[in-house]
Amino acid sequence: MPAIVSLHRGWTANLKTLLSSAKRNVLIASPFITQEGVLFVHKHLSSKLRNTGDCRIITNLSPNNIVQEATDPRALKFLADRVRGLTVWHLPKLHAKVYIADVTSAIVTSANLTSGGLTQNYEYGIHFAELATVSQIREEVTAYSDLGACLSPQELKHYVAVSEQVRAAFQRQQRTVSRTAKAQFEKLFFTAENELISLRISGASRTRVFERTIEYLLSRYGPMTTPEIHNRVKSIHPDLCDDTIDRVIGGEHFGKKWKHAVRTAQSHLKEAGRIELIGRQWHLQRDAT
Predict the structure, then answer these.
(1) pLDDT attached to residue 275
(2) Closest to 192 in 3D by CA, of 158, 162, 167
(3) 255 versus 261: which is more confidently predicted?
(4) Over the stretch 174-199, which tens digit does the pLDDT of each residue have?
(5) Residues 6 or more apart in contact with residue 213 via CB below 8 angstroms
(6) From the CB of residue 8, how many other CB atoms can be counted at a distance below 10 Å?
(7) Is the dihedral of CA 86, 92, 98, 103 positive or negative?
(8) Helix, strand or coil for residue 125?
(9) Where are the beta strands (DSSP E) in the chain?
(10) pTM value?
(11) What is the architecture of the domain spanning 4-149?
(12) Which of 70, 79, 169, 252 sits 20 to 30 Å CA-CA off 25?
């Protein structure tokens, strides 16, 4: 095929070719994923890739997406049970839709991995088949996904159970004006949000997540002031940057708690020789002059 092909209606033929051609790995970034999309992927992956390859799925498992039935964790578990090397990554601000096979083929599109995205909506995208371009797309999307939470099979199974409770509570609330039903839904919704936050900092701390993010931002966008870093960090991790929580010491308020965590992350990176402050801007150490 040509190095660049435009896609619109019928684009799933290209996606089918991309998936079936993958020999070692597949990367899928889609904020919305439903059973129809998962079945399409499973059908067109080769048996060799399902058994011995790697498949990374990046999505948004936020409770809002679940109650709106935009994303179905059960579908992801279905695929995880059938693709041995599959990993599921959660990032709340994901909006990109990207499909990559090895370093040979990449589709960047408006289409989610859903029934609407595959067959119903008018979508538009570009199919790339040039090695350097595909490699760059893969590297950039992978680096971004590394800022999220990778769910183990056990964690995914547990979150499916949590999401089912949230979904059922939401449906009960929709059928009644009962305050009890509403309170139960809000409680379960809050629990699901906390589950995701726990997964996001699993095995580390919020500060460590911010350290990785600061290095990512400085490598992608160059030197930044602390306020600029705050804005960028919050845009990636809104769930970890709660402006309603202040740091309180001895009854006195000392600003937003998450901003203190960002400053702590900056200090850790500076002490480790990873970044340095020149004037008012933070630089990666290797870029310092």
Answers:
(1) 96
(2) 162
(3) 261
(4) 677 677 767 776 777 667 777 777 77
(5) 147, 232, 233, 236, 237, 265
(6) 12
(7) negative
(8) strand
(9) 4-7, 25-29, 54-59, 86-90, 97-101, 105-109, 125-128, 149-151, 246-249, 252-256, 275-278, 281-284
(10) 0.86
(11) 2-Layer Sandwich (3.30)
(12) 70
